[in-house]
């Protein structure tokens, strides 16, 4: 790979290392300050901040120098970690507020950086190589998240929560330095006179007029919905259906992550990527079907095998969907299209997270197959629409 490609890979690895540590560290501090209720509020503040800021982030990405936007995004993430680390040194009520605000700031920084990163990738990587290259980046991202979650726990034990947060702020600033080393993707594409609403409206009209791009955007949203489903239902499924404990839960997640990483790494070879890059809907339907099959497992060994297959399926579906979106969406609109996709994904997540409240009589196994059937159905509808529009 060229220097720019290696630098993109390094940025992606470190950026998602920060995502992994950002999952563990704020939650641990929140539990120390206010118990499980504060943990929930911190996670909610982070999710809502990313969702609400996405339209503005997309507009900023497309109207400014994307290299500077990426640097600003990483700098904002560093500020978020500094706020998270400072929260433990404040009175409990003030600390809880600062912690929630810091988590929200970190989510805003990630949303801003992620949009700029996608735009720069489109500028640097030729269209016929984007799917395979994004799959290789997906391997780096999964490794980054896995290492980040593990390192966060060790770092808290060795350095303490605050020192760990300050160290992560330094890593975010180092990522900002790496952003400067990437030479491509510094263009701006939106007139300075256009506002946020006009810019997002333009992207919405573009999607309405380009079925391939709209289908790619929806596919990304549904593929992330599969992952949200597993995050929500797996703990209860392990305890209530498999009669297992935290050891089984951890084993299922670990093996699934490993198999998913291997699957994406294998699919990143160009010869294999070319076979699947045009078939994200097939992979998405298979991911939904894997949830249905997994819902019927009642023994730990069978669940381990089936959940590993599911891990491979949704990892491939997510990577192929993201790669397909970068392949077909106009680079001049990628920031705003990705913003719409982020909002769509967030809305899917709200529906999924509220599902146990609506379907109070259903077990986790029942909810698994309901979600799986819904994903398969969505895949078939999108495939039918794609065939009808000739995309």
What does this protein structure show overall?
The chain is mainly alpha-helical. The chain contains 13 helices and no strands. The protein has helices at about 5-65, 65-85, 90-125, 130-160, 160-180, 195-210, 210-240, 245-265, 270-275, 280-295, 300-330, 335-360, 365-390. Helix 8 runs parallel beside helix 11 (about 300-330). This is Major facilitator superfamily (MFS) profile domain-containing protein.
Which overall shape is indicated by the principal axes computed on the Cα atoms? globular
**Total count of strands:** 0
Distance between the termini: 31 Å
Order of helices and strands: HHHHHHHHHHHHH
User: Which stretches are low in confidence, meaning pLDDT under 50 for 5 or more residues running?
Assistant: none
* Helicity, as a percent range: over 70%
Total number of helices: 13
The fraction of residues assigned to DSSP E strands is: under 5%
**What composes the largest sheet?**
none
Mean pLDDT: 83
Oligomeric form: single chain
Q: Rg from C-alpha positions?
A: 20 Å
SS class: mainly alpha
């Amino acid at each position: 790979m060229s220097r720019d490609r290696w630098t993109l890979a390094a940025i992606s690895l470190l950026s998602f290392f920060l995502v992994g540590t950002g999952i563990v560290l704020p939650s641990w501090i929140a539990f120390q300050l206010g118990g499980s209720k504060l943990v929930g509020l911190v996670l909610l503040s982070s999710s809502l901040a990313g969702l609400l800021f996405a339209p503005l982030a997309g507009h900023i990405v497309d109207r400014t120098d994307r290299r500077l936007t990426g640097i600003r995004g990483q700098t904002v993430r560093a500020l978020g970690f500094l706020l998270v680390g400072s929260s433990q040194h404040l009175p409990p009520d003030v600390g809880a507020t600062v912690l929630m605000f810091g988590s929200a700031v970190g989510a805003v920084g990630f949303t801003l950086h992620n949009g700029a990163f996608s735009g720069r990738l489109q500028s640097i990587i030729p269209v016929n190589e984007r799917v395979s290259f994004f799959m290789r980046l997906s391997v780096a991202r999964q490794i980054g998240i896995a290492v980040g979650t593990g390192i966060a726990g060790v770092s808290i034990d060795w350095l303490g929560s605050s020192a760990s947060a300050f160290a992560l702020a330094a890593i975010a600033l180092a990522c900002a330095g790496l952003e400067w080393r990437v030479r491509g993707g510094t263009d701006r594409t939106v007139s300075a006179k256009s506002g946020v609403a006009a810019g997002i409206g333009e992207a919405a009209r573009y999607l309405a007029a380009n079925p391939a791009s709209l289908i790619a955007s929806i596919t990304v949203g549904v593929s992330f919905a599969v992952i949200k489903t597993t995050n929500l239902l797996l703990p209860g499924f392990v305890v209530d259906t498999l009669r297992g404990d935290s050891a089984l839960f951890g084993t299922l997640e670990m093996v699934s992550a490993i198999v998913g990483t291997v699957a994406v790494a294998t699919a990143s070879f160009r010869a294999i990527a070319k076979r699947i890059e045009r078939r994200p809907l097939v992979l998405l339907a298979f991911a939904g079907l894997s949830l249905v099959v997994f819902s019927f497992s009642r023994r730990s060994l069978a669940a381990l095998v089936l959940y590993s297959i599911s891990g491979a399926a949704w990892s491939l579906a997510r990577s192929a969907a993201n790669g397909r979106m970068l392949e077909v969406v106009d680079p001049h609109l990628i920031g705003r299209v990705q913003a719409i996709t982020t909002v769509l994904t967030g809305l899917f997540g709200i529906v999924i997270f509220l599902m146990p409240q609506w379907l109070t009589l259903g077990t986790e196994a029942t909810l698994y197959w309901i979600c799986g059937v819904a994903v398969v159905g969505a895949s078939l509808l999108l495939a039918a629409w794609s065939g009808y529009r000739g995309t």
